[in-house]
Amino acid sequence: MFRGLSELESRFLVVECGVDWLTCTARPGMRARSLAAAAQHWLDERGQEGYEIKVWNWNGYRGNVVDGLSIGTRDDGTIVRLSGSMSLRHWMSAMTMADNVSRLDIQTTILDREAESDLARNGWLKLNEMPRILSGQLRGSLLVSTPTGSTLSIGSRSSSRYLRLYDKTAESDGEYPERCWRYEVEYKGPRARQVSGQLFTSRDTTAQVFGAVRAVFGDCGINVPGQAPSLGWHDAGYRHVTDDERRLRWVATCIRPVIRRLVEAYDAETVAAVLGFVVVTHVNDAMDISLDPLADDMEDGTM
Q1: Helix (H) or strand (E) segment spanning residue 102
Q2: pTM
Q3: Where are the domains of the chain?
Q4: DSSP 8-state code for residue 238
Q5: Rounded to the nearest 5 degrees, what angle is found at the Cα of 192, between the Cα atoms of 173 and 44?
Q6: Which among 6, 85, 206, 269 would be 20 to 30 A from 41, CA to CA?
Q7: DSSP states of 111-149 as a string?
Q8: d(CA 303, CA 295)
C-alpha cells in the first residue's frame, strides 16, 4: 500500500482527468478569424503527427476534420470541436477566442490496479438502489458488449447532462492499459457554458474536474475511487495510435504476406517495380529503395 493512502485509494490510480470534448463557436469578426487561424494551426500539426486530414461538412459548416479536431465555417461564424487529447491540450485556448460553448465533456479515468471487478456493473447495482431510478424520474442502462466492454449510461443523451461509466481499455482497443475505467459527464447548452466558464476561471482545473465528476456520480450513488489529483498533477500521457501507424499495421498484417509470396514467385526487383519502387543493389549487397517518379505516369498511361 502507498504511504498515506487508504486501501481503496491505493488500489485505484487517476491516469487522466480533464476536459474531453469542447464544441465552441465564434460570430463573424476578429474572434472568429482568430479561432479559425488557431484551429488551422492545430490541424496542420495533427497532420504532421501522422493523422489524416479530411473534408468535413456538418450542419451547414464546411471545413476539415482530423483525429480530435473539427473546424468549419458558415455565414454566421466559425465552429471548432475538440476531443480527446486535442481537447486536453487546447480547450482553454479555444475558449479565449469563442463567443459560445454548446457542449462540454469532462472525465476522470481510473486505473484499477487489482482489476477485480466490472465497475460499470457495480455502478448499475448502486444506481438501482436510488429512489429517482425506482420512481422513474431518472433513467439508466447497462450495455455489455464485445469488444467495447461494459457501459453504464445515466440520463438522456439529448438532455443538458448525461453520464457514462465505461471500460476505457476495451473502448480504446487496448490503447489504455488493463483495466481503465472512464467516468464521463456530458453537458450541453447553457449548462455547458456555465461549467466551462467555471473551469476556465479555476485556479486548478484538474482538481475541479475531478471534484465535479465525483460529485455528479455521487448524486447517483456511485463513488469515483482514487485520490484527487494534487496541484501540478500530470496525466499518464497515453499516446494514441496515429492513422499512419494504423496503416502500417494493416500493411504488416494484410499486405506483407502477399508481397512475400510474390517475391518467392518472381523476384524482389520485379515486385518493387510493380509497386512503383526502385531497388538499387550495391557491391556490398546493401539495398536502397526509393519511389520511382515515373511509376504514376506509367500507371496513368501517359508514358
Answers
A1: strand 100-112
A2: 0.77
A3: 7-218, 243-300
A4: P
A5: 55
A6: 206
A7: EESS--S-HHHHHHHHHTTSHHHHTTSS-EEEEEETTTE
A8: 9
